[in-house]
Specification:
The structure is a single chain. This protein is mainly α. It has one domain (about 5-90, about 125-150): Winged helix-like DNA-binding domain superfamily/Winged helix DNA-binding domain (Arc Repressor Mutant, subunit A, Orthogonal Bundle). It has 7 helices and 2 strands. A two-stranded antiparallel sheet has the order 1-2. The longest helix is centred in the C-terminal third of the chain and has 25 residues, at about 100-125. It is elongated.
């Protein structure tokens, strides 16, 4: 079963961007995330529509943070990337007239809704500022500096 890691990836990119003075190109972000710059541009366009990032064209251009990290929650970012289902489980639908399948699916649907409601509530409790503070605590313990070009180098 394929898992959707877009939320994690977007949060990763945003925290790296917050550590960088100035704009960052899609190419630099894509290299760090080991993906194609087109994927980064597509994600960033959605974040721009919600006011979380802004873009600059031309020499020295790229993407930069445009929001207050203390006011943006993980749930806000989840919404900005299109509300992907936080649960990778799904119901079997091969025999919709089967009463057993109907009973199983009804029970699972109830559990899925409860789990999603709880997860979204928790995502609403965590701000980007809290994530950034956790990163800085970890960085301080390690005693290092943050250089995007080297932190993801293989």
């Amino acid at each position: 079963m394929r898992r959707d890691s877009r939320l994690s990836g977007v949060l990763h990119v945003l925290l790296h961007m917050a550590e960088h003075d100035g704009a960052m190109t899609s190419e630099v972000l894509a290299k760090a995330m080991q993906t194609n710059p087109v994927v980064i541009r597509r994600i960033m366009a959605g974040l721009r529509e919600h006011g979380f990032v802004e873009s600059e064209k031309g020499h020295g251009g790229g993407w930069r943070i445009a929001c207050d990290f203390s006011k943006v929650t993980l749930r806000d970012i989840h919404a900005a990337i299109g509300h992907p289902s936080p649960i990778a489980l799904a119901n079997r639908t091969e025999a919709p007239d089967c009463l057993v399948e109907q009973a199983v699916n009804a029970a699972l649907n109830h559990a899925f809704r409860d789990a999603e409601k709880l997860l979204l509530a928790r995502l609403g409790e965590v701000t980007l500022a809290k994530l950034s503070a956790d990163f800085h605590r970890r960085l301080k313990r390690r005693g290092g500096s943050h250089q995007l070009e080297t932190v993801h180098a293989k």
